[in-house]
């Protein structure tokens, strides 16, 4: 019996590097329930959220430069008819290294139906890599989450995530 895993596992080949900046295509992200067509439709160009009550999308960019600061953001299309986002905060989170402490920014998607948005929008999520971090731990862990409300939500397309060196 051929059993398909329910979660989409990131393909490292879907991470594009340009100098110290990274573009992570949808297939380069880990998506909980991403292989289940009832919940997600994942292609190279987008990850379309059909519906979930547990939004968990994560990724990792490896071997970043010590002593540098990076900005993390997600580019989304919020489809007309998107649902479940009223009074719900989406968190963009990131940390430097496996044992680092998560930083986060909240974003609201309600009122964005039919638009292309970049989140977080009001204030960037920045993560600093300490000069003392070990080479083996110089990885940036990041994600997009809404796991607390228990509400069903849907109608967004993840276009890409960007990790940009800003310092």
UniProtKB/TrEMBL annotation:
Protein name: Protein PHLOEM PROTEIN 2-LIKE A9
Source superkingdom: Eukaryota
Pfam families assigned: PP2
Organism listed in the record: Arachis duranensis (Wild peanut)
């Amino acid at each position: 019996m051929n059993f398909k895993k329910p979660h989409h596992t990131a393909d490292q080949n879907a991470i594009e590097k340009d100098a110290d900046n990274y573009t992570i295509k949808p297939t380069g992200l880990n998506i909980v329930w991403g292989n289940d067509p009832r919940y997600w439709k994942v292609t190279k160009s987008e990850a379309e959220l059909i519906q979930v009550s547990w939004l968990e999308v994560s990724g990792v960019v490896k071997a970043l430069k010590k002593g540098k600061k990076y900005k993390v953001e997600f580019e989304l299309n919020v489809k007309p008819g998107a649902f479940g986002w009223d009074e719900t905060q989406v968190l963009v989170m990131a940390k430097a290294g496996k044992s680092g402490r998560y930083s986060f920014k909240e974003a609201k998607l309600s009122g964005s139906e039919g638009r292309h948005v970049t989140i977080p929008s009001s204030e960037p999520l920045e993560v600093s890599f300490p000069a003392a971090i070990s080479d083996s731990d110089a990885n940036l862990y990041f994600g997009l989450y809404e796991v607390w409300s228990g509400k069903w939500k849907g109608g967004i397309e993840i276009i890409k995530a960007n990790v940009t060196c800003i310092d």
